[in-house]
Write a sequence for this structure.
């Protein structure tokens, strides 16, 4: 196995023979400067530039131990496991006469070689090792389409106008924040890392570095821009396919269609199908994986309006080869006929 540290604050463990990523260890607050395997490869020690040292179980990724005793302006240089006991020593001296380099001992046998004037005290093993699981969700697409507003809504439940994102913005939320039933079992932390990647042209190349290991990518665009917006979506799909090695799942979400009795389903359906299927002027999709229908489909909930809705979605299902199991309906408040009084006893 090979372990690597990164400026994205993670440690990655790789299969040395195949090059396959085995797991990602998260928990550091800044760039991971140094990593080291124990002699039996059962543990990994990692140190960040800010001076935090962590020890992990290699097999599960559980964090066993953490030290943070190196204050600024000093920084950690390297960390490694020692097979035999050793004596803590200091090397050199600064202009102020203080030790320049300290080799410091930690309880599990890791030694820290860094620029420090204090000793690192061992915290000992945690009573309950924590297994850390993270899902990466990225919001991509053109600039000024509301990616940051959506992220803020998901993470804090608020809506607030945001300035355009330059580079990348990151939020972290626990899984139960989105789903109260998704509470992690004891000894496990489940976290969602939500990333808003700036949509300006100058960031497109760099942002692709953050696409590998993506669990879910949402491509946001403004359909009123027509062909330019659709071309942009196709480009992002291609980037995601290359970086994640997975084909996209195409989910069409239609909301608040408000059919009236006079609406012609074919007239409303034709431009939608054209936008989805046209390879030159639209998205070029010949099939969908899921269809999500939410909000108010009718104005007054009359039988005639529902007949128009039925014809509309019957053709949608046929056009994109969908099954009933792949259609999801979330009712709105106009699903009932407001002109009919229903007595419930």
């Amino acid at each position: 196995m090979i372990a690597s540290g990164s400026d994205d604050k993670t440690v990655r463990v790789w299969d040395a023979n195949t090059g396959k990523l085995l797991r990602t260890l998260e928990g550091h607050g800044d760039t991971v400067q140094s990593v080291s395997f124990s002699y039996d490869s059962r543990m990994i020690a990692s140190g960040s530039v800010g001076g935090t040292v962590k020890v992990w179980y290699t097999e599960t990724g559980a964090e066993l131990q953490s030290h943070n005793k190196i204050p600024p302006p000093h920084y950690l240089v390297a960390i490694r496991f020692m097979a035999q006991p050793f004596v803590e020593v200091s090397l050199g001296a600064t202009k102020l006469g203080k030790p320049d380099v300290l080799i410091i001992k930690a309880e599990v046998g890791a030694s820290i070689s860094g620029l420090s004037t204090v000793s690192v005290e061992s915290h000992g093993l945690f009573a309950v090792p924590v297994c850390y699981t993270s899902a990466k969700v990225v919001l991509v697409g053109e600039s000024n389409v509301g990616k940051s507003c959506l992220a803020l809504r998901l993470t804090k439940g608020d809506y607030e106008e945001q300035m355009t994102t330059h580079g990348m913005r990151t939020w972290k939320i626990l899984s139960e924040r989105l789903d109260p039933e998704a509470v992690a079992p004891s000894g496990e932390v489940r976290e969602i890392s939500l990333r808003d990647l700036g949509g300006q042209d100058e960031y497109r190349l760099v942002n692709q570095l953050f696409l590998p290991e993506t669990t879910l990518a949402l491509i946001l665009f403004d359909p009123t821009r027509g062909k330019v917006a659709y071309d942009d979506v196709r480009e992002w799909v291609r980037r995601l396919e290359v970086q994640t090695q997975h084909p996209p799942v195409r989910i069409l979400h239609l909301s608040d269609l408000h059919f009236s009795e006079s609406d012609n389903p074919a007239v409303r359906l034709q431009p939608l199908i054209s936008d989805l299927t046209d390879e030159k002027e639209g998205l070029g999709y010949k099939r969908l994986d899921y269809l999500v229908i939410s909000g108010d489909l009718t104005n007054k909930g009359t039988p005639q309006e529902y007949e128009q809705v039925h014809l509309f979605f019957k053709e949608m299902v046929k056009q994109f080869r969908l099954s009933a199991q792949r259609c999801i309906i979330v009712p709105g408040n106009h699903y009932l006929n407001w002109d009919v009084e229903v007595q419930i006893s």
